[in-house]
Amino acid sequence: EIVLTQSPGTLSLSPGERATLSCRASQSVSSSYLAWYQQKPGQAPRLLIYGASSRATGIPDRFSGSGSGTDFTLTISRLEPEDFAVYYCQQFGSSQLTFGGGTKVEIK
Amino acid sequence: QVQLQESGPGLVKPSQTLSFTCTVSGGSISSGGYFWSWIRQHPGKGLEWIGYIHYSGGADYNPSLKSRVTISVDTSKNQFSLKLRSVTAADTAVYYCARGNYVFDYWGQGTLVSVSS
What we know:
The complex is a heterodimer. Chain A has strands at residues 4-7, 10-13, 19-29, 34-39, 46-50, 54-55, 63-76, 86-93, 96-99, 103-107. By secondary structure, chain A is mainly beta. Chain A has no helices and 10 strands. Chain B is mainly β. Classes of the chains: A mainly beta, B mainly beta. The interface between A and B is medium-sized, with 24 and 18 residues.
């Protein structure tokens, strides 16, 4: 099983600041199968990024994804009030699918 | 706009079978070659993939749950279902249905199931 480790666990930032979230895999992941989700309290996750760097439909361009192999990054260029949430990375490979433990982006 | 809606009990007794149905609206479950998945989230924790199914019936499961899980599809009702057998308190979670097998673009709102006597 590929383990995804997200860091930091919590990111305390102010609106307007840049957020950089990391997702590290225990073994190489195909970029085609790396996704990022946003989840707010009481809501289902929302797809932000798929294929490591492609934005899902309707996702603002302040969200961007990058990376390859075992290291992937989600960047939020300028935090808006609605961006404070928990973010999960997810991979699919060898018929197994795993999620990272999440990074909470909270208001400083 | 595709919408997914889970239905099922909120409380299940230990050792029983948890059963959920996901009804898909706004599109046919058998079009587009999509897979349909179940994912759960333990209270205050992260996400765990349970398994997925194709409208043709082909399915795959999380190895850690495979011995207890069956996912099925009913194209006539535009639904797919989850059965999880021999549940314990560790199966208490919010259960989501979603579209996709390696990326999930549409999700149900989720239903909390508690396992308790």
